[in-house]
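Mods, move this if it's the wrong board.
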Amino acid sequence: MSSHLWAQNLPDSFVQYQRGRRIYEVECMIPDIAGISRGKAMPAAKFAVATKMFLPSSVFYQTITGNYADLDITDQWTEVDVVLKADMSTACAAPWADEVTLQVIHDVEDKHGNPLPIAPRNVLRRVLRLYEMRGWRPVIAPELEFYLTQPNSNPNDPIEPPIGRTGRKGIGRQSYSITAVDEYGNVIDDIYEFAEAQGLELASVIQEGGAGQLEINLTHGDPLRLADEVFLFKRSIREAALRNGCFATFMAKPMKNEPGSAMHIHQSVVDIATGRNIFSHADGSETDEFHHFVGGCQKHFWAATALFAPYVNSFKRFSGDDSAPTNIEWAADNRTTGLRIPVSAPESRRVENRVVGMDCNPYLAIAGSLASGYLGMINFEKAREPASGEGYGRGLSLPRSLSAALQKLSEDEAFRDVIGEDFCLLYEGIKHAELDEFQSEISPWERQHLLMAV
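Not the wrong board. Structure tokens:
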């Protein structure tokens, strides 16, 4: 890769951050199945002359614990190489590094130049290509909920809220409190600083309902770009927290008596030729495509929940009383339904998916959500009548466990075809391996209540 192709054409945000300093290191990253950053770091001079970079295919075979799942893949343990291809449009600073460091998200191909179908970024691209073939362009906006916590070095200890600037432990049920946000002002200032250095755009920061729980809203745009931003933001937020002596966690349910953390996804679809939002007629009324999109979500979210809620802990968020809907009903301006239609002008009509947990891989969750809506539109799925009143504990319920969600995924052939069968087989194998690992653990609850009582 010649110097001219990258060093002289970096984004303005990085150039302003660099301020003429020498680039010390380049981090070549890919998101794995869990959404964790994998890859290689190398001196900038080495990156400049690298023709190809390789990783073993086994980076996609790991469970969240780091163990390797035994999958039904021919010659799995030969660990053939896959090729990393730099997407320089994603180049940005790693502003927490001691030296000037460049991050670059890479695509993953086989040795013949074909996109690797199991790579999460390629799974999302596959769905977006289907939209493009129909003359459609989806637009999304994610909302990221997370907790700041005290450092937790012993996994057997419960997670504790952080100590704020007042010296007091954070308290919950302070939604939208500006004072509560100010408690963690230093962390938020660093998040802003890191975002600016990386060219990432925040729409707003708010205090959520949990103790030390915050929400960052991102500006709407292209789904792949927004998935990349979520991927980068999660790392940035963790680094900002560590700089200030606390942890940031994206677990769906980190604390027993506090609300869970979601990644709500606002979705609309634009006609590529006209730029018109296809969810609204010229007179402002709802189109058939809008209703079919909702109908597709209602039909295929059963399978997609395996992507929206990827861990055992994910389903603890669906308690029914903590603002996490367990249904696939829809309604206008109703936060108790899995599909909410926010108040908006007709040209901004959108469907908010409130089911997704913040522990998701953003590429896979966005792909699953858009795939469901796509199938609804091409198959003319009929949406049920909108829900009225509070939806908690009512309507058609989502799967209530990871094993149940995986069963639904195995049964939905249309959804699997859109997402990709190779990916689905790999994903199921990894998730079943994680379930087996979890089943072998003895929890504090078991020790407390069973040790001396049974």
